[in-house]
Amino acid sequence: MPFPKLEGVKLPASADFHVHLRDGAMMDLVVPTIRNGGVNTVYVMPNLLPPITTVDQAQQYQKRLQALDPKVTYLMSLYLHSSITPSEIIAAKCANITGIKSYPAGVTTNSDAGVVDYEPFYPTFAEMEQQGLILNLHGECPSKGDITVMSAEERFLPILFDLHRRFPNLKIILEHLTTAAAVAAVLKCGPTVAGTITAHHLSIIVDSWAGDPFCFCRPVAKTVADRNALLRVVISGNSKFFFGSDSAPHPVAAKRGGDKIAAGVFSQPYATQLVLDALEKGCKEGVVKEEEVTPEVLEGFMSKFGRAFYGLQEETREFITVQKGGERIMDVLQAKDVEVVPFRRGQETWSLSWV
């Protein structure tokens, strides 16, 4: 039996610091699955159509989410845009907005209104530094010239270093790391820079998404060596790295055809379980050792480290347990008007219970 030390151990509820909950019918379908994945706190992405660029929009969105499941804590963000001025940052702080998400223009879903040049935002970043708001970076350069989806993350890293140098007290998160180079970059930076890692990037490689549209996301999964670097840093217990699922649901039709396949992997109902699946796979492949996957490691990566970086209290109210008992991931999550295919559909996973 894999990971016997984890069977039945009480763990604090997971926190997912990168979720796409959408709006409308998709939101109605996805939000009730958050706690199925052992998660009670989520950091909500603002890339709706239109994007969330004002405090009022964020507050109204939060109310819609709370109406669907009030047992989840929704941390809200704004979309970095020309309208996000220093005065808007002050207003955001007063309204308990947690951070600002930066999307380079055109690199992923609903990013057309994203950033072309960071310099105009330096006054905004300076105010964020003063107010304690977090800057969340989608760390890719747009594909052009010799930049492709395989090199886009690594080519972005000089921008991370420059922003960290200019604003050393600004909390920055390089999101959904996919390369050994990105791991090294976060380690090179000071304590105000951290990185999130998804469950699917702990599991898949470039061959996975090249043959399966439901594994295609941005940034794309890279090489075996890159995936292994992510696995090793998770079990290292380094507090600069913590969980953000980047669960990104799309209608089945948008993943299977049309002019362009939508980028996004849907993992929300199995957020915690999929991390365990990836670590189990890593053990079978000899990347990590079973004895290295301890309750303390899982608690740190899934809950403690992220909550600390975001200035939240440790979770002491709600707990989960996990067991390996033959549960399988659903083939499809559907309602009347929308259906979504989960990551690793039909495959065996861990069972999770709230205690």
Number of strands: 14
The succession of helices and strands, N to C, reads EEHEHEEHEHEHEHEHHEHHHEEEE
The fraction of residues assigned to DSSP E strands is 15-25%
Described by strand count, sense and barrel closure, the largest sheet is: 6 strands, parallel
Instruction: Tell me which oligomeric state these chains represent.
Output: single chain
Low-confidence stretches: none
Strand order, main sheet: write it out: 5-6-7-8-9-10
Write down the Rg. Answer: 19 Å
Specify the number of helices.
11
Q: How far is the first residue's CA from the last residue's CA? A: 22 Å
Query: Average pLDDT, to the nearest integer?
Result: 95
Q: Percent helix among the residues?
A: 25-40%
The outline comes out as globular
- Which structural class should the secondary elements be placed in? alpha/beta
What does this structure look like?
- This protein is an alpha/beta fold.
- 33% of the residues lie in helices and 17% in strands.
- The protein is built from eleven helices and 14 strands.
- Helix 2 (55-68) links the parallel strand 3 and strand 4 (73-75).
- Helix 3 (86-94) packs parallel to helix 4 (122-131).
Key terms:
355 residues, 14 strands, 17% strand, six-stranded parallel sheet, single chain, alpha/beta, globular
Summarize the structure.
The chain has eleven helices and 14 strands. The protein is an alpha/beta fold and 355 residues long.
